[in-house]
């Protein structure tokens, strides 16, 4: 609360600095901005940056350092006997001190003293930080304010600062990705220390358990990912068989045949489909599609499992229709009108023009869109968790229950998990494989789409 | 005031041709005859309706939403806008070359073979080869591309692309070739080549060319029609139009006073 108040105060100071800077620039220019190097607003922004940046830097640094600093000081004031305890015990003590500081009584008089100490330290620290940051805000503003003169190159400086902000923002995104990949990689390495890489990659059995005692019966786990990947591929294939024709045909209809009025209604309707959460599609798969396939199978005398690759694949295909359709629609519409006219001018019919000129020209873009859809299908989790089943059977029969990589990651990590058993670490290895595959597909897809773009611009 | 040609020599004949795009009228009662075996140039300032007239002849305007045509427009005496007319067959008879070269993203061979294929002009592969070669030859492109017929047509230079489009149009063996500012996207050398080609094609085809360049009209055409604000102002032999225009508007345009 106090911190929030301080932040608001600093913002207020910054905006005052902006106004002051702009006003001074106006005054320097005798009211005619053409006498200045930059527009007056840039002088204001420059002063505001000088005022705000150092102050907020101090605020953020304090927020990050304060807990460990206060902790060290509190520990150093505890009785010597307590200080010699192992780290975990000290952590417990510090927690108790914090609780006591928040008003919960503590039985230990030493800790009560420490709690008072803790409160006092935090108050002093906060007061000092407030003083310093406000002083910095004022000093920075004053420094910049006094340096304003018509020749000052305010705009390039402000723009350079903004540039740094932009770079920093994108760096955060990139480093997050790198961090996630690295953590996947390290955990996967730990897994591969326990289970052989070749066994994992080419093993035909998946039964992720580990013995808790060495004499346990049936204790040896098997970590072959092949059944999982065939499951994933099977469901992806089924979903593509559903999504590709439906998506592509609807895109052709929307872009080439639909009246503008129909298009205006149908396109947003299709986009609503894209907005439905996949968990809802999961219900749909379990409650409607799976029983339907089951009873349809009975009519033909086929044994269909109640959870089947078919049900999950069909429903996943439906979720991918909007993606394929809207991407294909975009590339089909982007085919230059002059190409269509060229074909019509030679006496081609509408369908000949579409089949022989428009679609071939749009093909690279369509392929790119389909690859994006495939990588989405491979990574899709919710629908398969609900509808595909859990049995890691190596089968290509779409009427049986299969399991996928994503489903297994979910089951491995749900519930209480210990992070030193291969069972849990296997999830990271699977995640890494999944990541590698979808990354590869996305790179190929983007490359194809880009190549296509270059052709007509 | 329009000079109407005696019947018999006219390949395309328009009488009182009005064209509307939605509410806007683009052509007002145009009476114009296009003679067989000649190059007719349509000139006039931008938006004067010359392209609209051109696109009526092969009904390209059908593709524009809200386009409507009134009056009569005939090809060899048959009404182009009659309900019984098959647009596909009409366009096989009336080929078109566009302002911007628009080869299909296919091989050079397939670009030229496209028209003959969809119209079933060739009985077998060797006949198709024959048509493709002859068309490329007629378009003056064969020498430059004969070793790379399987390469993409979009990889050619602008001038070559435009001659490829001309080869593609004449491969269907049309009777009329419409050209909508065929050189406006080309450099002077490529333009000279295309103009030369137009002159050669005149022997076998009736050509209608829309152009913004009066020099071009003077160089390649035998007859010139001047349009202004959707009306046909004057039509006559090219030499007469450029040396002795009858209408003050024509005079003003060709001397560069407006346009």
From TrEMBL, chain A:
InterPro entries assigned to the protein according to its UniProt record, in alphabetical order: MetI-like (IPR000515), MetI-like_sf (IPR035906), Phosphate_PstC (IPR011864), PstC_N (IPR022182)
Record keywords, A-Z: Cell inner membrane, Cell membrane, Membrane, Phosphate transport, Transmembrane, Transmembrane helix, Transport
Record-stated family: Belongs to the binding-protein-dependent transport system permease family. CysTW subfamily.
GO CC term, one of those recorded: plasma membrane
Membrane topology recorded in Swiss-Prot or TrEMBL: Multi-pass membrane protein
Locations listed in the record: Cell inner membrane; Cell membrane
UniProt-listed GO biological process terms: phosphate ion transport
One term of GO molecular function: phosphate transmembrane transporter activity
Transmembrane segments: 43-65, 124-144, 164-186, 228-252, 272-293, 299-324, 357-378, 425-449
Function field: Part of the binding-protein-dependent transport system for phosphate; probably responsible for the translocation of the substrate across the membrane.
Primary residence: membrane
ABC transmembrane type-1 domain: residues covered: 229-445
Highest taxon above the source species: Bacteria
The name this protein goes by in its record: Phosphate transport system permease protein
Matching Pfam families: BPD_transp_1 (PF00528), DUF3708 (PF12501)
CDD domains tied to this protein: TM_PBP2
From TrEMBL, chain B:
Coiled-coil blocks: none
Cellular-component GO terms for this entry: membrane
Gene Ontology biological process: phosphate ion transmembrane transport
Regions crossing the membrane: none
Record Gene3D superfamilies: P-loop containing nucleotide triphosphate hydrolases
MF-aspect GO terms: ATP binding; ATP hydrolysis activity; phosphate transmembrane transporter activity
Residue ranges of domain ABC transporter in the record: 12-254
Keyword terms, alphabetized: ATP-binding, Nucleotide-binding, Phosphate transport, Transport
Name recorded for this polypeptide: Phosphate ABC transporter ATP-binding protein
Organism: Paramagnetospirillum kuznetsovii
